[in-house]
What we know:
This protein is mostly helical and 225 residues long. The protein is built from ten helices and two strands. Strands 1-2 form a two-stranded antiparallel sheet. Strand 1 and strand 2 form a beta hairpin. The longest helix is centred in the N-terminal third of the chain and has 34 residues.
Amino acid sequence: xxxxxxxxxxxxxxxxxxxxxxxxxxxxxxxxxxxxxxxxxxxxxxxxxxxxxxxxxxxxxxxxxxxxxxxxxxxxxxxxxxxxxxxxxxxxxxxxxxxxxxxxxxxxxxxxxxxxxxxxxxxxxxxxxxxxxxxxxxxxxxxxxxxxxxxxxxxxxxxxxxxxxxxxxxxxxxxxxxxxxxxxxxxxxxxxxxxxxxxxxxxxxxxxxxxxxxxxxxxxxxxxx
Length: 225
């Protein structure tokens, strides 16, 4: 006897529910493995951790790859977005160190957002010396200019970014840039240099430090020649 329409619909629902359970189980297994691989540390909130891992878990599942294959490949993680940012830029913006250390190995560190900014702009804005140094070591372009022709170093004092309590970090970042031959006299679309910006905001300790370090570096290079 042929099955009734209601029976067929019931079987279809059972199969659908089974598939859903299998998917959820697969995602949960991935979640636990990803959590172990990322080693994000205790400083990250549970909500952020859950959000990041869920994003990666869904990508891994939809890509039909294992967690190991995902982390050992050159998967285009720059295409994964979180809060309007690609995931790597988001990790820099939120200073999620474990995620940053994982992604920096496989992404283009010089990719730009709609404002023309790279990840380096965010690490400078956060006064994060280790992340800034890691980006430069990974090939981040210190000379890159955003849509306003500002370089990443300007983020130390742009807007409300300047934090006097972190002036030591600001100086460390300045040294990193100067050692990479940054030009502190590059002008933005308004004709201002980073030194001009610092003086305009009366951050004289930084403007003097910029000029002193730049001058010393230039003299050292001239002496070596």
